[in-house]
Amino acid sequence: MKVRPPVVPAFTGPVFAFMLSVAGIAVGVVAFAADAQAQAIKIGSFLSVTGGASFLGDPEKKTLELEVEAINRQGGINGHKLDLVVYDDGGAADKAASFAKRLIESDQVDVLIGGSTTATTMAAIPLAEKAGIPFVSLAGAVVIVDPVKHWVFKTPHTDRLAAEKIFEDLRKRGLTKLGLISEDAGFGKSGHDQSLIVAKAFGIEIVADEVYSPRDPDTTAQLTKIRNTPGVAALFNFGFGQGPAVVTRNVRQLGITIPFYQSHGVASKEFIKLVGEAGEGIRLLGSALAVAEQLPAADPQRPVVLAFQRAYADAYQAEASTFAGYARDALYMVAEAAGRAGGADKAKVRDQLELTKGFIGTTGIFTMSPADHMGLSPASFHLIEIRNGNWKLMD
Questions:
Q1: Which residues contact 47 (CB under 8 A, 6 or more apart)?
Q2: I want to staple 192 with a disulfide (CB 3.0 to 4.6 A). Which of 7, 182, 204, 336 is the partner?
Q3: How many whole angstroms separate alpha carbon 353 and alpha carbon 83?
């Protein structure tokens, strides 16, 4: 049966097409002969559903469950239903590695989606590479896909892209002397290192460079050093979770009024709730999902992100975060790849993931290649500002 939903299809393929449904964001598949008894395609996921990164993992888990159910209601992928297995790693890299091993060896999944954080992703990459299983990460650091790993892909923008986008805005505003404060591990450390690498190309001088631990309850000592640095014209924080919220509150407590930037690691309404009025005026990066209603009517992502927002809100009575979008994009890219591959053959699915072209997701429009296992351009990143407790599109 051919399903024809009322939006422009995000997926195309030589044998059959995947269509996005505005009502259910489900995949409809045109198949030669759907076998009702076809073997399920097993999706394995390890996510930080609890712990310090739960604001990432919880919406990711909810999204995978929501969208797997939607796909299965439409008959699955060429007659193959999706079977989802999820483990909660609590944000611990050792647990992530253990669960990835269990998913590969005991659960015998066909694809891995997960790794809410850079640390949990990096712990699982050697296992996926050794087992020869497609792995789509939901974490941000560029090291996940650079250098390219044969079996590993990712959906979020990288920290390198984030630094470049922020530095471009700094240059436009004539702010060339920057104070950098970042977490000393994982995403924050990688973002810090990438900032140092790309700053010179944008004419940005990092005149103050401070770090903190994600569990530090106070960062006033580091921020005081930055404030007292001669010439510092702007502040940039690289991190996620509670750390950036602590930094933000401390910035306001110290009366620091220079332009303040955060990375995409805080692109969630939960961050706005954590910081309250202290967040007013902060600029950060986010996907189209964060500013869906503000996108131009002709933007090809607009119907996709609005449909996902409605489906998520209907299911959970909550707003879909950028992080939920990462999981949604990963699942549908895997669905398209499996459809073109004709099933769950791991090598074929991997090859088809690498051939992804023009996939319209909530995070951006993805075009991958053997040299690029993320497939996003800087244009897919949006500069946003916190105004009156909400997001304001700035580009």
A1: 56, 57, 60, 61, 86, 87, 88, 89, 114, 115, 116, 138
A2: 182
A3: 19
> Max Cα separation, the chain?
70
Domain ranges of the chain: 18-156+296-377, 159-286
The whole-model pTM stands at: 0.85
Angle in degrees, CA 342, 348, 350, rounded to 5: 125
Structure tokens at 105: 């060896």
In degrees, rounded to 5, the angle at the alpha carbon of residue 138 between the alpha carbons of residues 136 and 143 is 80
The residues facing 183 across adjacent strands are: 212
**CA 340 distance to own-chain centroid:** 24
Q: What is the pLDDT along the chain (395 residues), one digit of tens a residue?
A: 333 333 333 333 333 333 333 333 333 333 333 444 478 999 999 999 999 899 999 999 999 999 999 999 999 999 999 999 999 999 999 999 999 999 999 999 999 999 999 999 999 999 999 999 999 999 999 999 999 999 999 999 999 999 999 999 999 999 999 999 999 988 899 999 999 999 999 999 999 999 999 889 999 999 999 999 999 999 999 998 889 999 999 999 999 999 999 999 898 888 999 999 999 999 999 899 989 999 999 999 999 999 999 999 999 999 999 999 999 999 999 999 999 999 999 999 999 999 999 999 999 999 999 999 999 988 899 999 999 999 999 98
Q: Classify domain 159-286 at the CATH topology level.
A: Rossmann fold (3.40.50)
Superfamily of domain 18-156+296-377, CATH level 4: Response regulator (3.40.50.2300)
What does the alpha-carbon distance between residue 283 and residue 263 come to, in Å, rounded to a whole number? 9
The amino acid at 269: K
Residue 238 to residue 196: CA distance in whole angstroms: 12
The pair of structure tokens assigned to 149 is: 């790993």
200 Cβ contact partners less than 8 Å away, ≥ 6 residues apart? none
- Around 379, how many Cα atoms within 13 Å sit in the side-chain half-sphere? 6
